[in-house]
Design brief:
single chain; mainly beta; 10 strands
Length: 117
């Protein structure tokens, strides 16, 4: 069991910002590439962004490029996702997982982001 804890979600208005955090309980974040993934109601999971263990290689989905910023603080064993200019289409439960892809077996409880128009 991986045990990742996501936090920072909430109910915001279109155009607002949120900062999500992800903290592993049972492993050292600094040894892993990490990704953020989201799942909107009634839809399959969508990969959002990924960052390698050193933080010098980053990728974004086209849907969030220019609005979201992924980062990590390995000393604090924490992964972040700064989300700006939020849109209603960003409404989803957000999860973090290891690797560059979607890895359901890593998911914690997720954090709900709801963006009202």
């Amino acid at each position: 069991e991986v045990q990742l804890v996501e936090s920072g979600g909430g109910l915001v208005q279109s155009g607002d910002s949120l900062r999500l955090s992800c903290k592993p309980l049972l492993f050292d974040l600094g040894t892993w590439t990490m990704s953020w993934v989201r799942q909107a109601p009634g839809k399959g999971p969508e990969w959002v962004s990924g960052i390698n263990n050193r933080g010098d290689t980053i990728y974004y989905a086209d849907s969030v490029k220019g609005r979201f910023t992924i980062s990590r603080d390995n000393a604090k064993n924490t992964l972040f996702l700064q989300m700006n200019s939020l849109k209603p289409d960003d409404t989803a439960v957000y999860y973090c997982n290891r690797g560059w892809d979607i890895r359901r077996e890593d998911w914690g409880q997720g954090t709900q982001v709801t963006v009202s128009s």
